[in-house]
Amino acid sequence: MFADSAKIYVKSGNGGNGHVSFRRELFVAAGGPDGGDGGDGGDVIFEVDKNINTLNEFRYVRKYYAKDGDEGGRRRCHGKDGEDIIIKVPEGTVVKEAESGKVIVDMSGDNQREVILKGGKGGKGNMNYATPTMQVPTYAQPGKPGIELTLILELKLIADVGLVGYPNVGKSTILSRCTNAKPKIANYHFTTLHPNLGVVDLGGGAGFVIADIPGLIEGASEGVGLGHQFLRHIERTRIIVHVVDISGSEGRDPIEDIKNINKELGNYNPELLKTPQIIAANKMDLFYGDEADEKLKEFHEAFDGENIPIYPISAVSGKGIKELLYAVNDILKTLDRTPVIFHKEFDASDLVIDESPLEITKVKEGEYLVKGSKIDKMLGYTNLDDEKGFAFFQKFLRDQGVIDRLEELGIEEGDLVNLGDLSFDYYK
């Protein structure tokens, strides 16, 4: 099964908490603070693996977590940093933020390794809070939480030339004729269910990468059939080769087929219509006498003025294939061969850490409630029995706007304030 899109959840590691401890050594009556810093959480990293060509793995594993940083230790020991998680993807994978659909990174060209999410910073140990006036700090800083994100992965093939057309018009046969690719070929519709890549070698260092895009149908741009999955692979190509059954052996009008496919390309992405196009009029071997010349004349008249060259070929016999390939190569020489890269639209580093906001409410007359993850963490790592620790906690409440909000709600001296399992009387 060829998978070229996936939806996954990723989370960077939490930072380790800072440590509270004091030196305890022989003949040292009152050692100073020596609590170490917590380790940083692990990052979420994407890396290109040249040996992978599908997103199949992500059909089975959809959640990826980096490791958390360790807590700091005694004797100024720094906690161990959390291990990064490295997610390997095929080249050409575009990573998008799921909710907005914006591009985070295109794993192509120079983007072979990218840090998508940074881990949370480790908290500072109490050794960092010693001052001439606060020589025995009994509190430490909790680690910052990691960041979580839902991502869409889309594989967009990196090819110079894309073969497009309705099912069963001969795209796979052409690919097998001009490259070493070995696509499965049979005489029934929708033989090709995933794109195939091949390298055309014209000798003397000339050549290009060509992709056989599975058969498109009307409504593909709206997602009919497997339209969207196939259309995304055309976005990087520099030349579009329309392969048509000029004989109409399937009962289709080849001229209308080309016009319909261009309509689908334009609906999906109007920029695709600016891509140079060539028509490969296939199955010329099925005509007799002057029928071939008459049909080609119809084609030239239908596309007169559109600057779309037409090359009669027979994929089965190979007739006209060489001329088609050299014509494609000549056009490629005039085009910029710099890889098509989808630029960043979403910077994950700007994400706010997902911490629930503080909820400050008046329960009843003379009683108030403050709750939230920030409060819980601070209570867990602050010694409120110590005067300095309590002063540190009060400063935190002011910095978070808790005191201002309580005063807005009408709190008065002597009123009760509940914070988690802690309750205290309010005094200015």
UniProtKB/TrEMBL annotation:
Family assignment from sequence similarity: Belongs to the TRAFAC class OBG-HflX-like GTPase superfamily. OBG GTPase family.
Subunit organization: Monomer.
Residue ranges constituting the Obg domain according to the UniProt record: 1-158
UniProt cofactor(s): Mg(2+)
Name of the protein in question: GTPase Obg
Alphabetical list of SUPFAM superfamilies matching this protein: Obg GTP-binding protein C-terminal domain, Obg GTP-binding protein N-terminal domain, P-loop containing nucleoside triphosphate hydrolases
Native source species: Catonella massiliensis
Source species, domain of life: Bacteria
Pfam families (alphabetical): DUF1967, GTP1_OBG, MMR_HSR1
Function statement: An essential GTPase which binds GTP, GDP and possibly (p)ppGpp with moderate affinity, with high nucleotide exchange rates and a fairly low GTP hydrolysis rate. Plays a role in control of the cell cycle, stress response, ribosome biogenesis and in those bacteria that undergo differentiation, in morphogenesis control.
Keywords assigned by UniProt, alphabetized: Cytoplasm, GTP-binding, Hydrolase, Magnesium, Metal-binding, Nucleotide-binding
PANTHER family linked to this entry: DEVELOPMENTALLY REGULATED GTP-BINDING PROTEIN-RELATED, MITOCHONDRIAL RIBOSOME-ASSOCIATED GTPASE 2
Lineage: Bacteria, Bacillati, Bacillota, Clostridia, Lachnospirales
